[in-house]
Amino acid sequence: RGRGGSGDGETYSIATEVSDISTMLAVAGPASHLLGHSYGALCTLAYSRTQGLGGGVHVAFEPPLAVDGPVAGDKLPGYATLTEAGELDAALEYALINFVRVPAQAIPFLRETPIWSTSAPLTPTWVRELREIDALGTDLTPYAAIADPTHLIAGTTTAPFLYRSAHELAHVIPGSTITDIDGADHFAHLANPAGFADAVTAAIVGAARA
Q1: Can you give the pTM of this predicted structure?
Q2: Do residues 177 and 130 touch, judged by C-beta distance below 8 A?
């Protein structure tokens, strides 16, 4: 919500995103597949847990769960201050270092990639999304209720907590499988879209055959 051409509202929660996913899947039709990345993966996990796909495959790429403490925690107010001041460039750097946990020395490189221009305009929406992430807490057992064929994806060079999130979920969700993309990080879908698409396609085909 609030991204691209999507509408927005006065209140917000992951439940809002789940409702939107339900609407879009109704348009897509029966047995449609569902892919979520990062916070989007938390939204697709919530959808799969509470409603279910009814025939499709669910693919989640590096959901940022609080497997080693809050994702934002006491760093969120500083981030919110930057976004409220319109300092989106500084906010993105702050978020990448403190929340995505990208090494500080990688920031100059990221500034020269499409990742930066794509992500900076989204930083204001991250404030409320980070609140939702931390509100989920550390208990992963509710995800054991997911019955959809589920495949997790993680990059081998991503932040340790993101890698751990995917792998811990693979142990919690019944029958789920996982793929590690060698040399990939949290932005694999932007850095190597063709390779990422291949991983997603293989995940769907493999889960459908299982």
Answers
A1: 0.92
A2: no
